[in-house]
Amino acid sequence: EVQLVESGGGLVQPGRSLRLSCAASGFTFDDYAMHWVRQAPGKGLEWVSGISRDSSTIGYADSVKGRFTISRDNANKNSLYLQMNSLRIEDTALYFCAKDGSPWYGSGSPFDYWGQGTLVTVSS
Amino acid sequence: SYELTQPPSVSVSPGQTAAITCSGDKLGDKHASWYQQKPGQSPVLVIYEDKKRPSGIPERFSGSNSGNTATLTISGTQAMDEADYFCQAWDRIALFGTGTKVTVL
Q1: Cβ contact (<8 Å) for A50 and B35?
Q2: What averages of pLDDT result for each successive group of 10 residues across chain A (124 residues)?
Q3: Cross-strand partners of B93
């Protein structure tokens, strides 16, 4: 059974940093691209960032480019990460980790499995 | 920038057919996916590559995509289908539609 478990969310002040993690199990992690998608309270889904199976290709939404960094650990921890710097109030959202149906970022494949999300609240 | 537009809400009677549209420039040239999200839950993929159903998704869910519009159709709608639905496509980056709340009256 595919499982994606996010962690690392919390309350943080504007301008500070936070690192999210997503622990993956139930599938061969390094065979698939992975993504972060967020959902502000009461709002729709917004794709944040994606990374190919081997980290060779990475993409970011314009809203987070230059502030957020996605990475993955295929060798040891089967985990996906999102380093979030210079956080803004508008970054407040539930952050989901999602598995791609393909090894490659931008292939057009759907997000076939999702975690339960971790809540990030940016407030002073 | 590329945008995907959905109607905010669709109402349907039990047993009837609900059609949810997703509009974007030349969307028919891309693959569209659809996700169902119930309150307090994570999104679930219900349609991918315009019309394919993942394992475990009921046959009453179907999809099409042509021109500028992708459509998710729920035939014989059940109370359990009441949820938010989001379309999704790729245009250099991944994009989600604005979302449609389906109410089963």
Answers
A1: no
A2: 97 98 96 98 97 96 97 93 98 98 92 98 97
A3: B91
